[in-house]
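Researcher: Structure prediction, please.
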Amino acid sequence: MVKAASTKPVEGAASGRAPAQHAPVLGSAAANPLGDLQALAQVNQHLARSLRTLFEPLLRQAVKVSAEAIAVERFDGYLNGRGQALSSVTMIGMAPLSGQAMLVLDGALTFRLVDLYFGGPGLPPNPLPAEFTPTAEAMIARIAAGFAERLSGAWGELAEIAFQPGRTEANPAMLSHIDGEDRVVRTRFTLMAGEARPIEIDLLYPAASLKPIASILSSKVQSRRQAADPTWTGSLARAVMNVKLPVRSVLAEPVIPLAQLMTLKPGDIIPISFGPEIPLLVSNNRFARGAVGASNGRAAIRVHRIEPLEDEDS
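Model: Predicted structure follows.
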């Protein structure tokens, strides 16, 4: 007797394939306690654009740098994904935050840049050596310094963090200050130069180091602190200086009774007196004091002193 086909899905070896593995969703509580990191993604876009100015002179050709999706993963998982290929990791301090970021550079890229620096065609040795030469270490230090400088600029719109390159290790697996179970925020940049294969450059932040600014990293709108545009500032200053203000002086302010005022008629004389100085008013505010005189056949006022500005809050 033939049994009806079961509707229960078959898993594991019986199905001939492994169960589906679902990647953790960025921003889920289990995978990423820092939130969706939208602001950090904006920082990466800014940094990717500025990295062109770092690598184009070294590679002697136009390059394209793009920022990949941010991932939060265990450090041992990151190492397993990189494999055994030669790479360097440079520690980058990020005061006032604790801990250090890690800049991971592909070994083939480093030796390619060294070959170009000495006038070669830009071909790395094949096979790659087991460790970096002193010249290659100097190239890594140069790249790390330029990367940290641009990193500070990219973060400037988000937070004041001083990125400073430090020591370099020839193998990320040799780092002793970070445990394999520690979570890192992996920001990856893909470098495209000519017809060569894409090159991945990774910057790892310890997730624990970013927790104090988690709310900033997940904010959707960032305030941009931009330096003042000198052209705009100059135009504004010229426009302000051309504003015309009414300037007047008061020679005297006689006081007479209402009865006398009502009987005034043409020809009557009102005596006045004023001191050696009279006020000079600008928009009804006392600006200066001076003396009445004449200049070039016209009545004029010689300014003796500028009055101090009055504090409106006093």
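Model: The mean pLDDT is 81.
Researcher: Thanks, that helps.
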